[in-house]
Amino acid sequence: MPRILLGVCGGIAAYKALEFTRLALKAGHSVRVVQTEAATRFVGQASFAGITGAPVLVTEWEPDPLRGVFPGDPLPDHAPLSHLALVEHADAYLIAPATAQTLAKLAHGTADNLLTAAALACRRPLIVAPAMNNAMYEHAATQANLALLRERGVTVLTPGTGSLGSPGEFGIGRLPESPELLAAVENALRVGGELDGANVLVTAGGTREAIDSVRFVGNRSSGRMGFAVAEEAQRRGASVTVVAANVSIPRSPGIAYVDVTSAAELADACAARFDACDVLLMAAAVADYRPAEAQAGKIKKDRTGAELNLSLVRTTDVLSVLSERRRPGQLIVGFAAEHGAGALAYGREKLTRKKLDAIVVNDIGGAGIGFESTDNEVWIVTADEERHVPKASKGVVAAAILDAVLSRRSSNDIKVRR
């Protein structure tokens, strides 16, 4: 039975930690809780203790009747130091909500309470779920602290966007919902297994096709979905390379990134790496058309007010080209961003026409999903299955996509090229 140590900081979102605890226990996990003193002002220790059946600690000086172990485990012969024993017996440590203050402490190695001392001693997967006002989350200091934690291998969850704690406040900073928190923990518990030894190639972002030295034809893809898929593949043991088309979001250590601008550059980068990969996940939004000729300088506005006419030509269909040259055992997953009725039907047609193993279809016409959003809602289509993934964070959606990939990899006897 997996053991989860839950750290709860002092924020209005602390009540959601109760919901997470119930969900984790229902899923068969064992949970122990540590709180900061400020957290007890929002949710009392007795609430968590009543749900988990285990004492809840705030300071190192409190006696722990379980001596650092989880409910049902044999008691050790002596009473160890709580901040060492709790993380030693846990399989994963989740801090949710993680306040700006605690994030700053974690980033700079401050261990002035039980929660942060346990984090400093943690050699298990550490996941933090920031939750705060959007102004605090977007502040350069907070973003720098999060970047530092990511560099050290901490899994940092992206908060949701919506109504915040104060009346009338709206923006990024909401604690992810309990199913997303549990999915993140369970993903962390699967590190180094399912894709162990596999080489995974992911494309992300949106290509830009030059009109002149200033302007381009492009799209709104941020690269978030592709990056989430890459990070999920890495968590499952794969060696991951991302071909990133104009992506500016933070990057994860341990993943190789190749930056490109145009569809032609993306095609070349993929072609050079395709033979060595076991799985290709084509999440980038690649331009279907480009200007026939790009001007060397900037096109000046015509003072007469005449219109500017652009002649567009088709770009290379990168996915079709790669599919035609695949070796036995390679698995190829396409992505199709559609709008409105017929999205799923087009995805099925594309699956067949391009000879793919699976295709991920999302209707970008829905509110709060798709391009530039932290959430998504998709259908994963294969030759024999259509699986709907309801609206969730792109990290959760990425986990569902990788589950589908692993299913196809098993059924098709995909072989890892070493």
Word description of this protein:
This protein folds into 2 domains: 3-189, Flavin prenyltransferase-like (Rossmann fold, 3-Layer(aba) Sandwich), CATH 3.40.50; 199-411, 3-Layer(aba) Sandwich (Rossmann fold). The chain contains 13 helices and 19 strands. It has helices at residues 14-26, 45-52, 82-89, 100-107, 114-120, 134-138, 140-151, 178-189, 224-235, 263-274, 318-324, 343-353, 394-411; strands spanning 3-8, 30-35, 92-98, 126-130, 155-156, 160-163, 170-174, 199-205, 209-210, 216-217, 239-245, 256-260, 279-282, 289-291, 312-314, 331-338, 358-363, 375-381, 386-393. The strands form 5 sheets. An 8-stranded mixed beta sheet has the order 12-11-8-13-16-17-18-19, with helices on both faces. Helix 1 (14-26) runs parallel beside helix 2. The longest helix is centred in the C-terminal third of the chain and has 18 residues, at 394-411. The model is unreliable at 413-418 (pLDDT under 50). Residues 1-199 are annotated as: Phosphopantothenoylcysteine decarboxylase. Residues 3-181 form the Flavoprotein domain. It catalyses: (R)-4'-phosphopantothenate + L-cysteine + CTP = N-[(R)-4-phosphopantothenoyl]-L-cysteine + CMP + diphosphate + H(+); N-[(R)-4-phosphopantothenoyl]-L-cysteine + H(+) = (R)-4'-phosphopantetheine + CO2.
